[in-house]
Design a protein that fits this description.
two-stranded antiparallel ribbon; 1 helix; alpha+beta; 2 domains
């Protein structure tokens, strides 16, 4: 048989497969649209992790959130939550806080454990965690309220507000902070993340 004959068969087969793939894509798009409409009209929740806040007059929305749960020596279990407005935390506007406790409830910076350790600490680095010369803003007041913890799904929800201050006394007020559907990992090495909260 000639090469033209084989080429003709190939073209027909290619067109057939292309048509089949096109039909599959149309069906997938239809299914996705149907699921989206169902979620809107029937109240189904899409549990997408989010962390948002107002930093001064600027809206802050994290595109990356990492949460760690584990033992804090001499205190018990707690959380460290780290967020950035871009995936690379070394360059992102970096916001992080530690909660020295893992039960539902409010943890405050002016409440102390063993009379010396605040229930909450927080830090904000506008130029990213990787900037070693960065001007750090450390929380001087505020709270984190854990509204729910799902041990099975390893998921945490809550609210937060802080007054942040740098070494020169400049302040940033954080309001309307909220984190939802944040997935956390369990670790025995939570201490490695706590050093960043020191001046």
């Amino acid at each position: 048989m000639s090469e033209i004959f084989y080429l003709s068969i190939f073209r027909k087969r290619f067109k057939f497969e292309l048509k089949q793939n096109s039909l599959i894509m149309k069906r997938l798009k239809f299914i996705f649209l149907a699921l989206l409409v169902s979620a809107v009209f029937f109240g189904c929740k899409l549990n997408i992790p989010t962390l948002t806040a107002k930093l001064g007059d600027q809206n802050y929305k994290a595109v990356y959130v990492l949460a760690v749960h584990g033992q804090i020596t001499g205190i018990g279990n707690g959380f460290v939550i780290m967020a950035g407005d871009q995936a690379d935390l070394s360059k992102a506007k970096y916001l992080a806080f530690v909660v020295r406790g893992d039960q539902v409830g409010e943890y405050r910076l002016d409440n102390f454990i063993n009379d010396t350790i605040p229930q909450v600490s927080a830090i904000y680095i506008p130029t990213g965690r990787g900037d070693t010369t960065a001007n750090k803003y450390i929380a001087t007041d505020g709270f984190v309220k854990i509204t729910s913890v799902n041990l099975e799904k390893q998921q945490i929800n809550g609210e937060f507000e802080f007054t942040l201050q740098d070494k020169d006394g400049n302040k940033i007020i954080v309001t309307n902070g909220k984190f939802e559907n944040i997935l956390y990992v369990n670790t025995d090495d939570i201490l490695s993340e706590l050093g960043q909260f020191n001046d």
